[in-house]
Specification:
By secondary structure, the protein is α+β, with helices and mostly antiparallel strands. It folds into four domains: 3-210, no CATH class; 223-354 and 417-545, Rossmann fold (3-Layer(aba) Sandwich), CATH 3.40.50.1820; 355-416, no CATH class; 548-753, Sandwich (Jelly Rolls), CATH 2.60.120. The protein contains 19 helices and 29 strands. Strands 17, 18, 19, 20, 21, 22, 23, 24, 25, 26, 27, 28 and 29 form a 13-stranded mixed β-sheet that branches. A ten-stranded mixed β-sheet has the order 3-4-6-5-7-8-11-12-15-16, sandwiched between helices. Strand 7, helix 12 (318-327) and strand 8 (334-342) form a beta-alpha-beta unit. The longest helix has 35 residues, at 178-212. The protein is globular and about 90 Å long.
């Protein structure tokens, strides 16, 4: 484990412990660290250091002072004073945020109280900890207790490495500063608490769960055709009345299980798994049966004595898809749906905007392989295989043969490159949305690949039912928005504090408003709720169109600007153009990958042109879906285009306004169903509306940057432009490079708040 990874784990743990890394005062102490973190002499050495630091420790921030004082007192051996300090800190935090359960804080409270009990009664620590755990947990609600039992700390070896690293850094010194001493004591306490308490927690958690819940695993539900669907359900013992159920229908046997969490919030939690096919090469069939099977599970739930006849579905990614698949033919018991970044098959997976991604094959091989996950999910191995295919120049239909792992579902998908009946029958299509008259919550992020699917469901729902009851919440998040706590730093971008909403809890609050008559969360004040990046505020409007009051047009001018071109507010010469030539045979870029960070001082472009505006004279709010027109000639019959927008800040940093890029196959620009080839060698125009939504207050003095590129990369289907099925085209069809003239009549329209 690298030092950087160790530090990252340690900072995460310290944040969970509530021990901020800041202090006041400057004083040196004699100190000679033990040889090893686990050395028998280590507790005495650290106790001696804490005893000497305590009298001189000062801190101006009250909460920081209490948190560090608790650590110093506990390590020094004064467990009584430490527990009193801990109680003061607990009361202070309760007053500041009374409703937010903090599992790590509760465990620290239990550890502190157990240490005091051990000192007072001389009983073994394991006994005092178990009794304290039971006493504290018995006073907690199911929801509060779940926050404790669900908490997962940093692995013990990582904590031990952090202590060892701290010792080694001070080994050549005879003294330690006050700041370093406090830091070391906090680090040591985290290790010591974990070493003593964590081996006891598993059994105690299980004991508490047994007291609170009825759990049934491997429940078999029969489909009309006799297939088995396996389910898990958890019910709270605290309720004697039938309850509404919350259902996740998933393809992932190893996915996070939220059934107990649903029960902790006063519902019956049910997790059902995609039907399996015994004695078959392929374990499951993705997408095709899940709508019918989810409806079977919903109908089964409604018949159970513990059910009040109402079911809500939830989930992200694939589980988000299954909720919409079930709603295609709405079962009477399905009363609400809450999804985050849901997949829309044929729209954003396995192809996005009609361009297949290699990740689709990677995924389907693993979920359908009866042997389970294998080395193709090792990133290094995967990249090597991917680059091998790219360098070979073989047709995309040969991708899985290059990997020596053919997959029938991958080939089935390739036979349907347009959004045809094959895909349409999986989820609601056109007027089928009009029948979905239940409340729906959709959560998505500007930096998530499945934002495309989320917006498809949202826009189609309102297109075919203007009175639809669907709410969209969107902000600076990625596709993992409900799988972890909100992050302050997303791939280098400092997220506005207003966006740090606990979206996991928000989902339950929304369900409570549907099933229990609770007030709807304030952040869901209207149909569209979006965080305006750079302004640190939420906006609430009745539609996507209402996010902006007008548009601002920028032309992709051919005029050069340093190494780039001008993004102009006035149209230039109609005859002016920028030339672009792209070799389809050059494979020296096989190891290229898109930059990870969302913000940086350099802007890497590949097979692309950059258009940069003048500095903005005043701040502009960019809100919504941008659109535009490309005016060009090309020597091919098709073309895969990508467009990305950046704000070039006055500081010289480029901020990506959404990610991944907006990409589309030109032959499907008019619609996803019907392909219309380009006219080789003729000047033509293609209009588009992006399926990437963003919201950002662009600063005065910033510049807007548009990057216009052509796709040719190892992780994508390659469009050689011959007009045939793209999956069967190969390097033999690409000896002639792509030659484009981008005319100054090309433009983008930005939705702005004027």
């Amino acid at each position: 484990m690298t030092m950087g990874v160790r530090i990252k784990h340690l900072l995460c743990l310290l944040a969970l412990l509530g021990l901020p890394a800041s202090w006041a005062g400057a004083q040196d102490f004699d100190f000679h660290p033990p040889a090893l973190a686990g050395d028998p002499t280590t507790p005495a050495v650290m106790r001696d250091l804490a005893v000497r630091v305590l009298p001189v420790y000062q801190e101006g921030n009250p909460e920081r002072y209490l948190a560090n004082l608790w650590a110093l007192q506990l390590v020094s051996g004064d467990s009584g004073s430490a527990n009193a300090t801990r109680q003061t800190l607990r009361e202070r935090r309760r007053n500041m945020d009374p409703d937010r359960p903090d599992g790590a804080a509760v465990l620290n409270d239990i550890y502190s109280q157990a240490r005091e009990t051990q000192a007072a009664t001389r009983v073994p620590f394991a006994q005092s900890f178990a009794q304290t755990f039971r006493d504290v947990m018995s006073r907690l609600s199911d929801q509060q207790a779940y926050a404790v039992t669900a908490w997962r700390g940093t692995p013990l070896p990582v904590l031990q490495d952090a202590v060892q690293q701290s010792f080694d850094q001070h080994r050549s010194k005879d003294v330690i500063t006050l700041a370093d001493a406090v830091d070391m004591i906090r680090t040591y306490l985290a290790f010591e608490a974990a070493r003593n308490a964590w081996p006891l927690i598993g059994a105690l958690n299980a004991e508490d769960d047994q007291r609170r819940y009825v759990a049934e695993d491997h429940v078999l539900i029969k489909t009309a055709g006799g297939e088995n669907i396996t389910a898990l359900l958890v019910r709270p013992k605290s309720s004697t009345q039938p309850l509404p159920a919350l259902l996740e229908f998933t393809i992932y046997a190893n996915s996070p299980n939220y059934a107990k969490e649903c029960a902790a919030h006063g519902y019956v939690g049910v997790v059902a798994y995609t039907r399996e096919t015994p004695h078959s090469l392929y374990r499951v069939v993705p997408f095709q049966n899940d709508g019918d099977d989810a409806r079977t599970v919903i109908n089964w739930i409604a018949r159970q004595p513990w059910s009040d006849g109402r079911v809500g579905m939830y989930g992200g990614s694939y589980s988000g898809f299954t909720a919409w698949a079930a709603a295609k033919r709405l079962p009477p018991a399905l009363k609400a749906v809450a999804t985050s970044a849901p997949i829309a098959p044929g729209i954003d997976f396995p192809m996005r905007d009609n361009i297949f991604r290699n990740s689709g094959y990677r995924w389907v091989f693993n979920v359908t392989n009866k042997k389970g996950w294998d080395e193709t999910y090792d990133d290094t191995h995967w990249r090597n295989l991917q680059e091998t295919w790219y360098r070979s120049g073989k047709a995309y239909v040969r991708l899985d043969h290059t990997f020596k792992r053919p997959n029938q579902f991958f080939h089935r998908w390739l036979h349907h490159p347009s959004y045809d009946l094959f895909w349409q029958q999986m989820i609601p299509y056109r007027r089928e949305f009009n029948r979905i008259d239940i409340p729906v919550l959709t959560i998505a992020g500007y930096y998530g690949g499945d934002e495309v699917g989320a917006l498809y469901y949202f826009t189609q729902h309102y297109q075919f039912d203007k009175n639809a009851n669907q709410i969209l919440l969107i902000g600076p998040y990625d596709d993992n928005i409900l799988e972890r706590a909100p992050v302050e730093n997303l791939r280098g971008y400092q997220v506005d504090p207003a966006a740090l909403v606990d979206l996991h809890q928000l989902r339950y609050q929304w369900f409570d408003s549907v099933f229990k008559g609770a007030a709807r969360p304030a952040v869901l004040a209207d149909r569209v709720n979006y965080e305006l990046m750079g302004a640190n505020e939420w906006r609430h409007v009745p539609s996507l169109d209402a996010m902006a009051t007008g548009t601002q047009r920028f032309f992709l001018d051919a005029a050069p600007s340093a190494d780039d071109h001008v993004l102009a507010q006035h149209k230039g010469s109609d005859a002016a153009f920028v030339r672009q030539t792209i070799s389809l045979t050059d494979r020296s870029d096989a190891d290229w990958s898109a930059p990870f960070d969302l913000i940086g001082r350099t802007l890497q472009t590949r097979n692309a042109l950059r258009f940069i505006s003048d500095p903005l004279s005043h701040a502009i709010e960019l809100n919504g879906l941008f659109s535009g027109r490309l005016d060009f000639t090309v020597n091919k019959m098709d073309l895969d285009v990508n467009i990305t927008l950046y704000e070039l800040l006055p500081t010289g940093e480029y901020l990506e306004l959404f990610d991944p890029s907006f990409e589309f196959r030109a032959s499907y620009a008019r619609d996803r169903v019907h392909r219309r080839l380009l006219k080789s060698g003729e000047r033509q125009q293609v209009t588009f509306t992006s399926d990437r939504l963003t919201s950002r207050r662009l600063q005065a003095g910033s510049r807007l940057v548009v990057v216009l590129g052509v796709n040719k990369r190892a992780d994508r289907q390659i469009n050689y432009g011959g007009g045939d099925d793209v999956s069967v085209e190969s390097l033999e069809d690409g000896h002639e490079p792509i030659k484009i003239r981008w005319y100054s009549g090309s433009y983008i329209d930005l939705p702005v708040q004027k």
